[in-house]
């Protein structure tokens, strides 16, 4: 279960900075408590470093950034679904809870497959060239 920030206010945000702080609190919580999110952050940093190293084209950068954002957004949505299901169902087995969580995990899996396909499209030719050069 994720831990909320200690701020106990439940009324509407009074100004933009308050809304921004709460949004950042949410991102901080998911980064601190979700191992998958941290692993994806590390993978994103490696992909960005590889993009730099191989000096990929602007189009390739767009593909990589969209792929990275896609995975982060789906992982965030999956975490929200898990938290909501746990809030409603609690520590009990419920076949609908299982279905909902499995579908949310399936959505992350699809996003990850799309991201991997983008990675193979961008880096595949470089890796192929390296392998050819090594022979
Ligand atoms: N209340 C429940 N009733 C039935 N099945 C559940 C319930 N909670 C979780 N499950 C099953 O256990 C799996 C893991 O659920 P859990 O909430 O622990 O996700 P998780 O392992 O933290 O996922 P992630 O790795 O994406 O964070 C779910 O995909 C689902 O199949």
TrEMBL record:
Alphabetized UniProt keyword annotations:
ATP-binding, Cell membrane, Kinase, Lipid biosynthesis, Lipid metabolism, Membrane, Nucleotide-binding, Phospholipid biosynthesis, Phospholipid metabolism, Transferase, Transmembrane, Transmembrane helix
* Gene Ontology MF: a single term: kinase activity
What topology in the membrane does the UniProt record assign? Multi-pass membrane protein
Q: Which domain of life is it from?
A: Bacteria
Q: Which InterPro entries match?
A: DAGK, DAGK_sf, UDPK
Can you tell me which residues the record assigns to a coiled coil? Answer: none
EC main class here is transferase
The protein's name in its UniProt record:
Diacylglycerol kinase family protein
Q: Which organism is it from?
A: Lacticaseibacillus baoqingensis
